[in-house]
Amino acid sequence: MERKFMNVILLGFGFMFVFTAFQTMGNIEKTILDSIRQDDSTFTADGYTSLAIIYATLAICNWMAPSVITITGPRGAMLIGAVTYLFFIITFLFPRTWLLYVASVLIGAGAAAIWTGQGNYLTLNSDADTISRNSGIFWAMLQCSLFFGNLFVFIKFQGKTHIDVETRNVVFGALTAVSIVGIVFLLLLRPTRRAPAIDDAKCEIVVEPEGPLDAFKGAIKLFCTRDMIFLSAAFIYTGVELSFFSGVYSPSIGFTLAMGENVKQLVGLSGVFIGMGEVLGGALFGILGNKTTRWGRDPIVIMGYFIHMTSFFLIFINLPNVAPFGDTMDTSYITPSPYLAMLCSFLLGFGDACYNTQIYSILGGKYSDNSTSAFALFKFTQSLAAAACFFYSSKALLSVQLGVLAVLASIGTAAFCRVEWSDRARSRLAVDNVDEKLSPVTHSLAENTLHYD
User: Fold this and answer.
1) Which pLDDT belongs to residue 201?
2) CA 248 from chain center: how many Å?
3) Rounded to 5 degrees, what are φ and ψ at 256?
4) What is the mean pLDDT of each run of 10 residues along the chain (453 residues)?
């Protein structure tokens, strides 16, 4: 197997195991912490607050991530970040309010390092022909974490209305072990040389900085470019929908008691269906990577838009308005259906894969000469939006949250397509200019050939 492709596979396995631990924990954190508070009155931590702290810290630290990577390199940054994820999981074995919030700050800083390092490392191991394929394969492997982790939770939570201490510790212990396996895979990553520039005709010319201060200045300069400002609208939407499906939607299902006695285990099952949608989308777009590059990324993003709008409507009529706040016997416009809830989970995951695989592809292609800063800015904007969503999730009704998602989806999709169409027009113009310059030479050669004959 070609060495760079092997690096992509190892990267996918490393993130799959590390995020099996974290994404599973994020999906059940609100439910788990509510159970801990019922057992221990001194424990007052809130799941939405913890997740908000994580993403707010991640947003802030993303500005420093390019500078850190100039010192540690992408592999070192990913290892440092993975260790903070391990620490975060371990803290749940010793539930303390202050410890959870401290761990939330640390994992936020670590997430900035691991995600910026990942984007840079993926770009270094890709070229113009493989960036879409590699992005899809990595995304599919990463999102397997939602499938395996939440399937385990579904089994452990079966038949429970309250998550007892023994069950919690078994889940935390298993997730800790899985996180360690992910770190081992990241240790196996091999260094790679800088890949050739991708989409040279499309790239904005930004020189990759050499020092930490230059890296910080370069990130600010890139953030102020027109196309990055447009792309930021898409980044914001992915952040809000990420926080919704990873931390709000599944617990809301678990709080909808009208779904039946085993409603708590649906929290894990919802994560499984989200993961199935993510994996299917990532695998599909990985297989069609070359065709995606030829046809453009916008059809896939537009498809993701309509899939998400459909899921938002179905969620609106299926779950009660107060579902994000805690256990409720309220209903919405129809009798709450577990089957419809799982369908919406799948649609949320598949639509998210549509957006994220194409964002990875456009960043890796358009900004291959400055991938560290580009991916850092992506995670900054996405995380800031996710943090804001978690802050208002504990107060906003479900209908309000779905309305915000619908508006941001429309703006973000339009902005992404604007950048994609502009790049395509510039690419065609560049090709036409080259043809115009070559045509006199070709004509002259043809005349000389005829004269010689």
Assistant:
1) 41
2) 16
3) -85, 85
4) 82 91 79 80 79 84 81 89 93 87 91 86 78 76 78 74 77 90 92 56 44 62 80 89 83 81 77 84 69 70 92 90 77 84 91 86 73 76 82 82 92 89 70 57 56 55
Whether the Cβ atoms of residue 402 and residue 173 lie closer than 8 Å to each other: no
Nearest to 415 by CA among 203, 238, 204, 233: 233
Locate all alpha helices (DSSP H) within 40-130, ordered by sequence. Answer: 47-61, 65-91, 97-124
The type of residue at 87 is F
For 112, other C-beta atoms within 10 Å of its C-beta total 28
Structure tokens at 1: 């197997």
Q: Can you say how many angstroms the Cα of residue 205 is from the centroid of all Cα atoms in its chain?
A: 26
Q: At 188, which helix (H) or strand (E)? A: none
33 in Cβ contact with 45 (< 8 Å): yes
- Does residue 196 sit in helix, strand or coil? coil
Phi, psi of 34 (to 5 degrees): -65, -40
- State whether residue 40 is helix, strand or coil: coil
Instruction: Please tell me the distance from the alpha carbon of residue 157 to that of residue 135, in angstroms, as a whole number.
Output: 34
Residue written as tokens 């504990």?
394
Q: Which of 301, 444, 350, 361 shows the shortest CA–CA distance to 127?
A: 361
> What's residue 181's pLDDT?
93
CA distance 117 to 62: 11
Residue 172 — φ and ψ, nearest 5°? -65, -40
Q: Say which residues have a Cβ less than 8 Å from residue 157's Cβ, sequence separation at least 6.
A: 163, 167, 264, 265, 267, 268
CA separation for the pair 433, 411 (Å, rounded): 33
Q: How many CB atoms lie within 10 A of CB 257?
A: 17
- State the residue for tokens 């401290």: 102
Residue ranges of the alpha helices (H) in 244-288? 249-255, 265-287
* SS3 category, 328: strand
Burial of residue 74 (CB within 10 Å: 0-12, 13-18, 19+) is: buried
Using only C-alpha atoms, the chain has a radius of gyration, in whole angstroms, of 23
